[in-house]
Automatic annotation (TrEMBL):
Signal peptide: none annotated. Residues 390-494 form the GH3 C-terminal domain. Residues 297-362 form the GH3 middle domain. It comes from Antarcticibacterium arcticum. GO terms for molecular function: acid-amino acid ligase activity. GO terms for cellular component: cytoplasm. This is GH3 auxin-responsive promoter family protein. InterPro entries: GH3 (IPR004993), GH3_C (IPR055378), GH3_M (IPR055377).
């Protein structure tokens, strides 16, 4: 029996019995009061009257009434840019020691999100909560003695004046506690390699030296890493290299679209645990095995608000309208989609993180990420969110016994008519027309707005299949390979033209 593993598991079990679940409304009110009180003397806090808000009988209501919505462009232009000019006490006391470079999905300059010491600690505390939740899963004691492969971005942070910059996964990994470093792979030396391909090569070379029990990272990049390790060692699946691999923890991306292609690399399925670690904070984690939903972290430095995800509240660029209503956590409804707003210990205020979510269990405050506001296809009233697209593609996978781990789509004009033009990352060789008909049918059955659009402005659907690796090469072309990178699922016409030109160049034929 694994004695050390049993001790660790026992300590985690004990902690879980001692720590009680917070009451959502009370926890969130306490978080908001602490945020306001800490930042009341900052430039932001003075402008929006945080002291007066704290004196209100309805603090959440006064906060919502006084402070406007901010997306990245607005808060960066009006506030965070001042930090780069040398100012302190801007939206949070002092100056942040880190800025997280958000990979984004547009190919433009990375966003620079402030990360304070308080946020680093909040991420660490939520990480401890997640580790504690592992005892809810049916894992043997020896699992807690195995090593963990964390495939994030480079931990070799770049010094910029009085702070350091890197992706949030790199910042988090560079701050892991000393007791955990013995379990952490690929280890500090390899993790600091900036070139993603070189880092993966070194991981493949060293893979047999490690006893990996768990993987953590974005599904598409973990899948590529596994393929490289399998290829390098000339084996049929990853369990021939890591026989004790039991758990995969994804991050901020729905695992379902990747499940079929992912499982093809395994001798047996893994326990999949979802997490929601964004550049702006660690928002949620999966707490129990009976669901694939994640529990919002309500008592650890993040205050949540929710805007109903409806077309009339979303601008074309993915921002929300000034008159969009906000719903507190006490009034959310199950299975309805919401746009997420957060205020945090890093000095983000009523911040549009860009994700859409739905509550799968209101009492437990469990959610699923359903997409991005920028990935909302509504040019001709079709009102397609990413989760609706993914559900339809999963039907195609089952109907035709194929794998579609990646896709992108745009509404394009052909002879003054609109079509939805899809590119599916798949090795399937079947005709695009057959896939288009099945996809069109699945979306029409599942989505009333899409069905109506198909009788009016949306004239048809076009589908082309391409090598899934081309999606990764597209990200590499835009200097976004590995780490927290997520493929853009919906493109505007201009971006889509660049994509099609890229595909033609890569294939050497007319796409």
């Amino acid at each position: 029996m694994a004695i050390i593993g049993s001790l660790i598991k026992g300590l985690i079990d004990l902690r879980g019995k001692i720590v009680s679940e917070p009451v959502a409304e009370e926890a969130q009110l306490e978080v908001l009061k602490k945020l306001l009180n800490t930042a009341k003397d900052t430039s932001f806090g003075k402008k929006y009257g945080f002291e007066e808000i704290l004196e209100s009988e309805d603090i959440p209501g006064a906060f919502a009434a006084r402070v406007p919505y901010f997306d990245y462009n607005k808060i960066n232009e009006e506030w965070w840019s001042k930090m780069h000019e040398g100012q302190d006490n801007v939206t949070w006391p002092g100056k942040p020691p880190y800025f997280a470079l958000s990979s984004g999905t547009t190919g433009k300059t990375s966003k620079r999100i402030p990360v304070t010491e308080e946020m680093v600690e909040a991420i660490r505390q939520t990480g401890i909560k997640q580790v504690g939740a592992l005892t809810n899963f049916d894992l043997q004691s020896d699992f807690f003695e195995k090593e963990i492969m964390m495939l994030g971005s480079s931990t070799d942070l770049k010094e910029e004046g009085d702070h350091e910059e890197g992706e949030i996964s790199g910042i988090s990994a560079s701050n892991i506690p000393s007791w955990f470093r013995g379990f952490y792979k690929p280890g500090e030396e390899i993790a600091q390699i900036g070139d993603w391909d070189e880092r993966i090569k070194r991981i493949a070379e060293n893979a047999k030296n490690w006893d990996i029990g768990a993987l953590s990272g974005i599904p598409s990049w973990i899948e590529l890493m596994l393929k490289e390790v399998i290829s390098y060692h000339k084996v049929s699946n990853i369990h021939e290299i890591w026989p004790n691999l039991q758990v995969y923890t994804s991050g901020g991306v729905a695992f379902e679209p990747y499940e079929k292609s992912f499982n093809a690399l395994l001798a047996h399925p893994l326990t999949v645990i979802d997490t929601y670690l964004a550049s702006e904070g660690f928002l949620a984690y999966q707490q129990r095995p009976e669901t694939n939903s994640m529990k919002l972290v309500l008592d650890n430095g993040i205050y949540f608000e929710f805007v109903p995800f409806k077309a009339e509240y979303v601008n074309e660029d993915g921002s929300i309208t000034e008159n969009a209503p906000v719903i507190p956590i006490t009034a959310v409804k199950q299975d309805e989609e919401y746009i997420l707003l957060i205020s945090t210990v890093s000095g983000t205020w009523r911040y549009l993180i860009g994700d859409t979510i739905k509550f799968t269990d209101v009492e437990r405050h469990e959610i699923r990420i359903t997409g991005r506001t920028k990935f909302f296809l509504n040019v001709v009233g079709s009102q397609l969110s990413v989760n609706k697209m993914s559900d339809a593609l999963k039907e195609l996978e089952e109907k035709f016994d194929i794998k579609i781990p990646e896709f992108t789509v745009a509404a394009v004009r052909i002879d003054n008519d609109f079509y939805h033009s899809w590119y599916l990352g798949s090795d399937a060789t079947m005709p695009g027309e057959e896939l288009a008909a099945a996809l069109d049918e699945a979306l029409s059955i599942a989505n009333k707005n899409y069905r109506v659009a198909r009788t009016k402005a949306l004239k048809g659907v076009k589908v082309k299949t391409v090598d899934p690796n081309l999606f990764h090469e597209w990200n590499a072309l835009n200097k976004k390979k590995g780490g927290q990178v997520k493929m853009e699922k919906v493109m505007n016409e201009e971006k889509f033209m660049e994509w099609e030109a890229f595909i033609k160049e890569q294939q050497g034929t007319t796409a």
